[in-house]
Amino acid sequence: MQRLLRSVLASFWFMLLALPVLGIKLNTVERTLTWRLDRIFALGAGIFFLACIWDWCFSRKAKGQPLVALPPGSKAAQQVAAFARHPLFATASLIALGVALIAMPLVTSFYQTNIMISAMLYIMLALGLNIVVGLAGQLVLGYVAFYAIGAYSYGLLHQFFGWGFWTCLPVGGILAVLFGLALGFPVLRLRGDYLAIVTLGFGEIVRLTLQNWSSLTGGPRGISDIPRPTLPGVEMDIAQSTTYIYYLVLLAVIITIVVVSRLKNSRVGLALQALREDEIACEAMGVDITRVKLSAFALGSCWAGFAGVIFAAKTTYINPSSFTFMESAMILSMVVLGGMGSITGVVIAALILILAPEYLRAFSEYRMLLFGLVMTLMMIFRPQGLISGERRRYRISALHTGEKS
Q1: Residues 113 and 175 both lie in one domain
Q2: Three-state SS across 306-327?
Q3: Would the pTM of this model clear 0.85, i.e. be above it?
Q4: Domain that holds residue 25
Q5: 181 and 313: one domain?
C-alpha cells in the first residue's frame, strides 16, 4: 500500500511540474490557449508505472536480492548454467558473430556500414582508455587529445609531404605515444581529481592549439581532401571505399581486443592492476611505479592515435570541433558503463552508446535525457558496470595430511 501511495505522489508531482510545458499551448497570433491534458494524464500513468518498478527494485536491493534470478536449485537454472559454460557455446557464438560482421556491409545499406565504422572506432578508443582507467586506475579526462593528434598527423603529413594512409598510420600512433609520455612525466605524482584536472587541461590545450594555429592546422577551417585508404592499382568509389574501411576497422578492432586481452594477463598488465588496487602497496612490493604509469599512458594513447588516423581517412575532413571534451566524456562513459577492466563490457557499452542514438532518431529531443537516465540507473543498480572486470584470486591448497615437511 505504501508503495502505491509513493507512486501516486511521484506521479502527481511530475504532472504538476510538466503542466506548464506539456499541458498548455499558447498561440500568440490568435491569442488563444489550448489545454493538452491528455498528454499530462499519459505522463502521469507512465510515471506511476515507472515509480512502482523503481520502488520494487530498491526494495529488493535493500534486502540483498537480485532483480532477476532463477531458483538456484531448479532444473532450468542448471541447464542454463551448463549451456553457458559449454565450450561449444562460446565457439558457436564467436563464429556467428564473425559471419555477421563480415557479411554486414554486403547486405546492409551505406548508412548502416558508416555508423558501424564509427561504432568500431569508438570501441578502439574505449579499449585504449580502458588500459589507463580500467586497468591502471588513472582517471584521464583529456583522452580525445591523442585522438586528435593521430587525425591531424595524417592530415598534415599528407598536406605538406604527400604521405599516404599506410605510412601515416604507424606515425600517428608513434606521435600519440610521444605526447602520452610527455603528459605522463609531469603527472607521475598526481592521482584522483588532480590527475583528472591536469589531463582535462591537456585536452583543451591541444584543441585550442589546433584551433588557433591557423598557419599550420588551418584553424577552425580544418583540413580537407584527406585521401581514403585504397588498394594499390584499384579505383574505388565512395561505397567501395567505405566497405574497404569497414573491413580495415574490423581488423583493427580484432587486433586491439587480442592485444588488450594479452596485455591484461601479462606481467605489465598485472602491474597495472596492482597499481589500480593500491599504489603504495604496489610500490612496496617492488613495482616500478614510474615505468608502470608511463607504460599505461603510452599504451592507451597509442590506440587513440591509430583510431585518429582511421577517422581522418574515413571522414576526409577534420577540424577542432570534432575533438571536444564531450568526446572524452563519451569514451569514459563507455568504460564506466561497460565495467572498468572488462573488455567484453566495454565493447558492448561502446556499441550501445554509439548505435542507440542513431537508431533512436525519432526520439532525438529526448536522447540526452534517456542517456542520463540510463547512466543514473547503472550507477544505482550496477555500479561495477555491465560486466565487471575479472579479478585474480589466489588460493593456497591445503597440504596433504601425509606429506612430510
Answers
A1: yes
A2: HHHHHHHHHHCCECHHHCCHHH
A3: no
A4: 2-62
A5: yes
Q: How far apart are CA 45 and CA 39, in angstroms?
A: 10
Look at residue 401 in the predicted model and tell me its pLDDT.
47
The CA distance from 315 to 11, in Å, is 46
Predicted confidence (pLDDT) per residue in 141-178, tens digit: 889 999 999 999 999 999 888 888 889 999 999 999 99
Contact 310, 118 (CB under 8 A): no
Q: Which three cell numbers stand for residue 297?
A: 599512458
Cell numbers representing residue 83 in the block? 549451456
The verdict on residue 404 lying in a domain is no
Please give the C-alpha separations between residue 386 and each of 54, 63, 84, 370, in angstroms, as whole numbers. Answer: 19, 21, 17, 17
Calpha distance 311→152 (Å, rounded) = 10
Q: With cut-offs at 50, 70 and 90, classify the pLDDT of residue 389.
A: low
In this structure, are 181 and 291 located in the same domain?
yes
Instruction: List Cα–Cα distances, 92 to 83, 113, 124, in angstroms.
Output: 12, 24, 24
251-302: pLDDT as tens digits? 999 999 999 888 888 888 888 888 888 788 888 888 888 888 888 888 889 9
Question: Do 121 and 350 meet the contact criterion of CB atoms below 8 Å apart?
Answer: no
User: Can you tell me the distance from the alpha carbon of 325 to that of 313, in angstroms, rounded to the nearest whole number?
Assistant: 22
The phi, psi pair for 25, rounded to 5°, reads -120, 120
Cβ contact 360:313 at 8 Å: no
For residue 290, the domain's CATH number is 1.10.3470
Distances (CA, A) of 181 to 112, 174, 177, 300: 37, 11, 6, 10
Distance CA 105, CA 99 (A): 11
In this structure, is the dihedral angle defined by the CA atoms of residues 346, 258, 94 and 79, taken in order, positive or negative?
A: negative
- 198 domain residue, yes or no: yes
Grid cell digits, residue 87:
565450450
Residue 68: which residues within 8 A CB-CB, separation 6 or more?
none
Provide the 3-class DSSP secondary structure of residue 294: helix
